[in-house]
Amino acid sequence: MKILIYGNPVLRKKAPKIKIIDRDIILLSERMFKKIEKNIPKGIGLAATQVGYNISLFVYEIDDDKGVIINPEILSKKGKEVAEEGCLSVPGVYGPVERAEEIVVKALDIKGKKIEMRLDGLKARVFQHETDHLNGILFTDYINDINNLSVEEGFEIPEKLLERLKVS
Ligand SMILES: [Zn+2]
């Protein structure tokens, strides 16, 4: 399982909803957890589209809180907050993104049970970031000034992102 990197067209697809949660989906989510746990730095969220599966699913792991989220829909947003974000598909690149402070999300869990959650803090941010992935949106889409990006040593801003920032 490989994480697709910025510029890969699959990252721009809008993921269709999952109709049946079968064994393949369960196995995929287990592999995705392994992927974020092994990553350095450890990931806190990963969308199926980032590993080449165009389906509406993401996993998250924030300390001891982990889960599989299927067909997420953000029902409402409240407040605004800016914080630094990064993404496994844009390795080593970080930048400030404005997100809603509080959200209400509707989804299915891995057993197919309907869930509705009111979230805030980091979890709300992760859910917005990952739901964006399933709509073909990357956190860098919110950044229009190259000076707002910070790049870790040994990493580079992807060519395609550089091109966009130069013309905007
Ligand atoms: Zn991401």
How would you describe this structure to a colleague?
It contains 3 helices and 8 strands. The protein has 168 residues and is an alpha+beta fold. It has one domain: Peptide Deformylase. The strands form 2 sheets. A 5-stranded antiparallel beta sheet has the order 1-2-3-6-7. It has a 3-stranded antiparallel beta sheet with strand order 4-5-8, with no helix packed on it. Strand 4 and strand 5 (90-99) form a beta hairpin. The model has no long low-confidence stretch (mean pLDDT 95). The structure holds zinc ion (ZN). Zinc ion is lined by residues 87-89, 129, 133.
Helices, strands, pairings?
Elements: H1 23-38, E1 45-47, E2 57-62, E3 65-78, E4 81-87, E5 90-99, E6 102-108, E7 114-120, H2 121-133, E8 150-151, H3 159-167
Antiparallel strand pairs: 1-2, 2-3, 3-6, 4-5, 5-8, 6-7
Bound molecules: zinc ion.
Zinc ion binds next to helix 2.
Please give a handful of descriptors for the protein shown.
168 residues; alpha+beta; Peptide Deformylase; three-stranded antiparallel beta sheet; 3 helices; 33% strand; globular; binds zinc ion
- CATH fold label: Peptide Deformylase
Number of domain units: 1
Beta strand count: 8
Q: Unreliable segments (pLDDT under 50, ≥5 consecutive)?
A: none
Proportion of residues in extended strands: 25-35%
**Small ligands present:** zinc ion
CATH superfamily: Peptide deformylase
Share of helical residues: 10-25%
The biggest sheet amounts to:
5 strands, antiparallel
Structure classification: alpha+beta
- The number of helical elements comes to 3
CATH class: Alpha Beta
Tell me the strand order in the biggest sheet: 1-2-3-6-7
Distance between the termini: 34 Å
| Mean pLDDT rating | 95
Q: Which quaternary structure do these chains form?
A: single chain
Q: From the 3D coordinates, which CATH architecture would you assign?
A: Alpha-Beta Complex
- String of helices and strands: HEEEEEEEHEH
